[in-house]
Amino acid sequence: MDGLLLPLALLILGVPLAGLFLGVASRRRLRELEARILALEFTAAQLRELARRGFAPVTAPEPGPQAPTPVSEPRPVPPSPEPATPSVFAQPPRPAAPAPPTPITPGRIEAGNGEDLGWRRLEGALGGTWLSRIGALAVTVGIGFFLKYAFDSGWIQPAGRVAMGVAAGMALLLAGERLQRAAYRVPAQALVASGVAALYLSVFAAYAFYQLIAQPVAFGFMVLVTATALALAIHHDARAIAVLANLGGFLTPVLLSTNRDAAVALFTYLAVLDAGMVASAYWRRWPELHVLSFTFTQLLYLAWFQRWYVGSPPPRGIALIGAGVFFLLFSLVTVIEAAGRERPTAQRLWQSAGVIALAAPAAYFVAARAVMWPEHASWLALLCLVLAAYYVGLARATLGAPGVGPLLLVVHGAIALGFLTLTFPIQFAEHGTTIAWSVEGAALVWGGLRLRSGPLRIGGLIVLALGMARWLMIVADQPAHRGMFVADDPALVSTLVYIVATAIAARRYRTEGVRLTEPETYVRPTLAAVSAAAAGLFLATELHRHPALMSSALRSVTTTLVWLAVATLLLSLVRSDRTATLVVVSGVMLAMVGLKAALIDTAVWQSLTPAPPPLLNARFGSGLLVAAAAALYARLAPTPAVSAVTQTQLRVGAVAFAALFLLWHLSAEVMLAPLAGVAPGEMTMARHMALSILWTLYAFAAMGVGIQRRVAAVRFGAMALFGIVVIKVFLIDLARLDAGYRILSFLVLGAMLIVASFMYTRFRERLSAGAS
After folding, report:
1. pLDDT for 204-226, tens place per residue?
2. Are the C-beta atoms of 615 and 669 separated by less than 8 Å?
3. CB-hemisphere CA count at 13 Å for 717?
4. 441 vs 217, 424, 456, 505, CA distance in Å?
5. Residues 289-312 pLDDT 10s
């Protein structure tokens, strides 16, 4: 039984190969028949279309070796049930000749031919490509199973087994080369791939299973197989064979590992292999090889690092040099692609080279940081500076690349800017990082404006945003200090530098006169708002870190004044803002300050003991300033940057806010006024009476302003407030107040209503004339 297995195995191996050759020959004959059928169908369809349109079945005068139709030859009359008409060719020539009949392609022969061609393409892909690939895989697996069975059965000695594998691999390579010359490209690639796989398996078996050859010899053989496979892939223009060679080349050090540190040999081999893959990818335009080589190289480097980067001290030099060699090799991929023989496009560049252009520096920085941080932080910072200079050189080198020069300039410039930005947090402490990023960002924005470079300005804004994030972290984590207020704060210098940097950047955007895009017009007001807000946040935070400096109520009012100053500063810049950004920011800030003063400050002020005197206190003064700022907003906010309707809405809203806030503020002052020596019940009635009188006088004053300014909205507001006072006096004061307080409330309300009515009647005609 065992004697029949060998012929049976050979039969099983030979039948697929014979079937493969027969299939190739049959497919060639099938292609010829399909081409003839398509040509016949195409010709018949053209004849039917010409007959349908009423033209004689003659060929159109197209350039080609076709013989002209004799004039004396009678033209057949097209079949038609209608009376015959003169042929279109017999008409006299016209200035504009009729368009020739639309050519009919084989895909338009009949209604269902599109689907037929789709099925034929699918059939061709399955029969011509995938059958060959699956057949190659099946042959490889079959050879493996046969050899394993033969090995297990003891038919062949180890040396013979390896020799058979090598012979089979060489035979498949020769057969693939022979078919390639005979123009059977897909089956030839399948045979070559099978041969390469057989050679890899044979060399690995000779080393790992049978110990027939030493590790250096096996390594050399695998390198030779990889080089042969790569050369055949280039020769056959076979992407699949190149991918197989790539996989085999990077699996070689894994399969032949000796469980000892061989970093120099490993990194040298990977560098040579990567160079060959990069060159092949450039020569044949195979972007997949770039990505595969970079990915496998990083995985092998990571595996070595985790396994062998140990000891005291660890092999820092080897690790850093190896990562540096890989970085230099892959960082040049984009430059090589950009300087290629064909004109590159951005889409093709980003298929692989553009991704590696970003991944290579990131991988190298991660490796360098793992090697050098924190013992050699200064050297790591210097390395970042060197890398920044290197990428500036790459940007200059690829600036003139056809098609993608500006794109590569942006990519390499962004990487250089990234390394320059990383230098500061590595070398300096937290405050030094904020200072360096602030100066760098302002310098980049200034340079971008002077050089008319949009990407440079964007880079500067990104660095300023990083500086702001770092500054916020410092301010949030800064502990309270016992030194002098503001002057001894450790974050003072970094705060001042950041405020000045953003202010300078905003100023440059205004004075350089650069034509900006629509989104970039919002940069200047945003920078101004950030600069002012940073100053306000620093002062407010410093106030809360010094609880012994003042009482909680006074600290709350002082914080309100700080933010009010910031809002007023931004309000003073709205006239120079063409985007209305500062109008919105200052308005929102004023509204928040007003709410804080009305709610928080009033609640905190109520807890003071002894109570401060009415009117002559910090809370009342800050409230007056808030109302004045709202009135100023009503005057300055309506700018040409907004429409006329919006200007009116802003003005009315600001005036209404100022009036309501002032009324609330005065009412709070009445409720918080100290009444020493007065009983609690008497105090409540006195305050209710004072509120009624205050609201009455306020409504009367508002009526006077509305009449004098001829503003109907103010007059209606005064009348509404009069109505509220009437309801309060008749429903609340009448029920709760004693006789004296009640009489005074009614008398003041009635007198003010009569005088207001007299004033309105006295100037009604003027108001009507003004309204008309």
Report:
1. 878 877 788 888 888 888 889 88
2. yes
3. 21
4. 57, 12, 10, 8
5. 889 999 999 999 999 999 999 877
